[in-house]
Amino acid sequence: MPNDYLASLLAGVPMPLMLVGANERILRLNPAAVSLFGANMEGRHFYTVLRQPAVVECVSGAFNSGMPRESRFSRKDHTHESIFRVICAPVGSGRDAAVLASFEDVTPVETAGQMRRDFVANVSHELRTPLTAILGFIETLRGPARDDAEARERFLSTMAREAERMNRLISDLLSLSRVETEERVRPTELQVLPEIVLSVCHGLRPIADDAGVEIRVGPAPDLPMVRGDADQLRQVFTNIIENAVKYGGEGDRVEISFATIQRDPILAGPAVAVAVQDFGRGIDSIHIHRLTERFYRADSHRSQKLGGTGLGLAIVKHIMNRHRGRLKIESDVGKGSRFTALFPQPRS
């Protein structure tokens, strides 16, 4: 087969391909493989390029057995790890014998699988804790505390609290599922953000009063409307403001402000910003980039004590993604935290 024809044939395949000759030297790399392994690799021994023992054995096994072999190849850089499924298939015979190694990027599949396993493990853990408590109290009420009225009332109160915790978790899981389902469908209706925020603050007033926190809402002169789903926007501000009241309550107040931004560098255009500032203990910077992960808590014990499910900010993130906006988190330990929801201004 002419070399130019072979080169054009391999170049037409989008996945990385490596052709190894009978002398164990690399005969050809297609452009995708050059991007993966680097330039000027042709003519080198395949050991020196692949290096990973499992993949080297896969190529050698295909040569020795004359049968296809399969392996995995991993590639790490400064930001993430990529996983490839490697198929080594013998081609040609005699002096023209070679092995064609293909590298299929299965990183998204592997990542999704790991996320699913982590999700199941986290949900199981979150449900197991209250269930174990409830089952323990039931056993105690059936036995030693059967005729102890005071203990019975105390245990029933704790059981009700744990059952409510499970109910909140299931409710948040259903909300997260609905938000993820709709994430690619952009809302079209125009909404007035200050009206939604004031409505949310009114609903949260009893919680704020119980915590001894004053919610202060600043003026919003000439604030542009944004395209959004009213119910989901209420959920965004409910989650953010309720978190500020519960976790930043030491500051005795929560301040909400509105602003227009001429150009947000992330949204690449003008934006409307709603900032929720508390004056509590703040959040250590090592936690900030992970706060929107499912079930991640900067202070797990405190979150569970206050009834948190670890899903509130994950729901906010997905809703903001649907609205083509973003959530900006800033915090100073000992001074408080600021959560800003930024929405793109609609084009006229």
SSE blueprint:
Blueprint: H1 3-11, E1 17-21, E2 26-29, H2 31-37, H3 46-50, H4 53-65, E3 69-76, E4 81-91, E5 98-105, H5 107-142, H6 149-182, E6 190-191, H7 193-211, E7 214-217, E8 226-227, H8 230-247, E9 253-264, E10 269-278, H9 285-288, H10 300-305, H11 312-322, E11 326-332, E12 336-344
Parallel strand pairs: 7-9
Antiparallel strand pairs: 1-2, 1-5, 3-4, 4-5, 6-8, 9-10, 10-12, 11-12
Helix pairs in contact: 5-6, 6-11, 7-8, 8-11
Give a written overview of the molecule.
With 348 residues, this protein is an alpha+beta fold. The chain folds into three domains: 3-105, PAS domain (Beta-Lactamase), CATH 3.30.450.20; 107-182, Signal transduction histidine kinase, dimerisation/phosphotransfer (DHp) domain (Helix Hairpins, Orthogonal Bundle), CATH 1.10.287; 187-348, Heat Shock Protein 90. Helices cover 47% and strands 24% of the residues. The chain has eleven helices and twelve strands. The protein has helices at residues 3-11, 31-37, 46-50, 53-65, 107-142, 149-182, 193-211, 230-247, 285-288, 300-305, 312-322; strands at residues 17-21, 26-29, 69-76, 81-91, 98-105, 190-191, 214-217, 226-227, 253-264, 269-278, 326-332, 336-344. The strands form three sheets. The protein has a five-stranded antiparallel sheet with strand order 2-1-5-4-3, sandwiched between helices. Helix 5 (107-142) runs antiparallel to helix 6 (149-182), helix 6 (149-182) packs parallel to helix 11 and helix 8 packs antiparallel against helix 11. The longest helix has 36 residues, at 107-142. The mean pLDDT is 86.
